[in-house]
Design goal:
The complex is a heterodimer. Helices cover 69% and strands 0% of the residues of chain A. Chain A contains 9 helices and no strands. In chain A, helix 1 (3-24) runs antiparallel to helix 8 and helix 3 packs antiparallel against helix 8. The radius of gyration of chain A is 19 Å and the shape is globular. Chain B folds into 5 domains: 1-108, Rossmann fold; 113-196, Alpha-Beta Plaits; 200-347, no CATH class; 363-444, Alpha-Beta Plaits, CATH 3.30.70.3270; 448-525, no CATH class. Chain B has a 4-stranded parallel β-sheet with strand order 2-1-3-4, with helices on both faces. Classes of the chains: A mainly alpha, B alpha/beta. At the A-B interface, helix 1, helix 8 and helix 9 of A face helix 3, strand 5, helix 5 and strand 6 of B.
Chain lengths: 243, 526
Amino acid sequence: MTARPRQIGLARLRQGLYRFIAAGLLPPDQERIVALASAIAVLETSVIHGFAFATWWHPLAAVLDEPPSIDVLEADYVRLFEAGVREPPCPLVESAYLPLPRGPGAFLVDLDREYRRLGLAANPLISLPVDHAVLQLEGMAALCAREAEATDRGDDAEAKRVLGDEERFLKRHLARWFPVMAHRGAVAAGDGYYGTLLTGARAFVHHDRELVTTLAMASRVATEPGVATDPRVAAHRGLEAVR
Amino acid sequence: MSTLVLACADRLPGVTPEEWLWLEAAEVRVVRGLCNDPELIARHADGVSSLVLAMCSADFVSGPVQAAARRAGLDPLGLEIVDVRAANGDIERLILLLEAAVARAQCFAGSAPENARMIFPKAVTRRALLKLRIAEYVAVPSIEPSRCVADRGCRACVEACPRGAIVLSDGAISIDPAPCDACGLCTTACPVQAIVDPTVTPAQLDAQVRTLLDPSSGPSGPRGILFSCRRSRRVETAPGWYPVVVPCTGMAPASWLLAPLLLGAAAVAVRLCGDGECPLGRDEAALERVAFCRRLLGSMGWSQDRVAAAPGDVLLAPVPGSDHADHNIFAPGAAGHVLHALAEQGSDGSAFVFEHPGSPVGIVEIRADACTACGMCARTCPTEALVVAPRDGAVEITFDGVRCTACGQCVASCPEVAHGAIALRRVASRDALAQGATRLAGSDVASCVRCGRPVAPHAMLQRVAGLLGPKERRVMQILERYCLDCRAIGSPGADERESPTYRSGGEAATMHRRDQLARVGRIHLE
């Protein structure tokens, strides 16, 4: 397989995983859980094992082999993510995790502007806050799809630009808070569906940030003078000696 | 759940390896063509809890092996791989190497997502990256925030990282994985094990080294422990020497080089990367520590050759009475205990005191006339070598040399360091290690004239008085006489003339300025 189909395959795989996690974090629904169980069965036979985050997807696959009842999932969902008498341990919104010096309103406006800059807009039929994890995960999935399409039609410049967008969005938003939330949630949730989903999701988002940063850096090495002396490049070369 | 050893049959010594390869702690399966077909790993290892691979060489591509381990439900960072060539055709040696690898694998406590770092081709281009068939990963350290004492002022890891990959922001330590080259220096610099490389924990090293030195197993004769870099491609076959792989030999503190001697090793060596061409440039650090160990051993009356920068040809008899087994001697805070235990076993019992940059222990000195007994040094000390404690109306700072890791955090945190209040010397001293906690400094404590609670050490109040000068005598009186609570919320009472909050009208004009100064004093005293 040459580089181009592999790049398309990688972008599509990442798109699918982002969508999988987003669906898993929506309020529980019987049909969706069945769909997720069949999706992870397919993933288990895919190239996913080539990536480090797969280590943390096995437990989720085991849980989804015999998914818990919707009643149990609903109770867990409310306990973990929804506001109740007490603050939930891991609300699914970015604004709960980051310092907001200008207040939550300004933050949400900035985020909405960021989506628009990326050419994305939330479906008005979906009543989720603009900084909700599901929207951010779907946003990343859309960018991955765009990268795959650009590569497929041979538009390398566009693919590189989209990769830069992915890097920026991960660094500024999703990868900044999602792993913190997922770690906190996994601790609170234990070994059940949400615990394993959040652990797998944390591993994937962390891995994706690393991967996208490196791919974007590699794109720049060829075109921008000085990048080749970046300490990150030096570190990669040091690590190469491990092999 | 069990441990499995999968051995590639292609280069195993002996004619019937299946019969010879029997281990007490693990099941062994000998598989033909394992090195060329990693998918065999997934087939055989499904359901096991830990896995050791005995491969024909270290030249296999690790990506497919890691992927196969994941397919079997294993964490690939917990895989232990033994290069069969290291056995040099000796089946007993091979069994010992495998048993030690099994012991190390069984102590693997799992990794976190942050511990897996993808490694890339030398040409960092997107096309080269995307041509990678299967990604390869190497372990990098991660932070365990619940153990970290950065909030107490510790910056040991930040100072140790040669790449600037560890940063402090908002009072918390974080690792930027991009510049990190996985050398592991931060893991041994951290005095509280808050930075963890899950593939090289003290428990794993302890298990592996103890097994390698277990006289009931393996070839007879004295044994040497050889710390070698995981970047090295060299196969260690010197008779009597057994390799222990670490991320970088520059990370191994002097206490690691000495600890095996307590467990029965005849000698310890460090294999520098590629004949002095360490890709990370850490050979000097390793050599400095070797030099310290040699000088220490000489001071103790042992042969200096027990620690060397390369495995020697002749192994001496083990250190007599080497059964120091109670302590976790590879833990970061154990350096003093290791040195102390070795000194206790020293052949001539002579005292030693010498300063060396490679020393893993140190001596803290406090100048009584400059110290204000504020206790910042003790609050920052991550190993509690320095302790501040009240005693009979006074406060006392004590120092226990056996706990000191020479991290230098006490010096960095001292507000009076400019006046020479505190100094750390990298000194190895038998007396300092043996004498336990001793008093370094102290001061009587002023008591609140109203409630009787302690206000602050007199030494500190004198220092504040010196800073404020004679013009602020009234403010100093308040600072000296009242505790924080009485100073801030005191109400007129029996001793209302003493109360800082009770003022005649004529004094009101000066209140604002004094309040400001009192707040300055409060901040300092807190």
